[in-house]
Write a structure and sequence with these properties.
Shape: elongated
Strand content: 15-25%
Largest sheet: 3 strands, mixed
CATH topology of one domain: YefM-like fold
Protein name: Prevent-host-death family protein
Order of helices and strands: EHEEH
Number of strands: 3
InterPro entries: YefM-like_sf (IPR036165)
Number of helices: 2
Family: Belongs to the phD/YefM antitoxin family.
CATH superfamily of one domain: YefM-like domain
Oligomer: single chain
Length: 65
């Protein structure tokens, strides 16, 4: 599902529900992709790959002031 930004004003609850179930929702303005709505859980539970896999540990508040 891709839609214009104005579409989100009236459909936000439904969009949030879809994102909670793992769907990524692109947002475009005048036909140009400007953002993507993704689940926060998806980004906070990522597994590292590559040479540093298993080497780094971040606390839950690593980005707090």
């Amino acid at each position: 599902m891709s839609a214009e930004a104005v579409h989100y004003k009236t459909h936000l609850p439904r969009i949030i529900e879809r994102v909670e179930h793992g769907e990524e929702i692109p947002i475009d303005r005048a036909g140009t992709l400007v953002a993507r709505v993704v689940s926060l859980v998806r980004w906070t539970n990522r597994t590292a790959v590559g040479p540093l896999a298993g080497q780094l540990r971040l606390s839950g508040d690593w980005d707090s002031p």
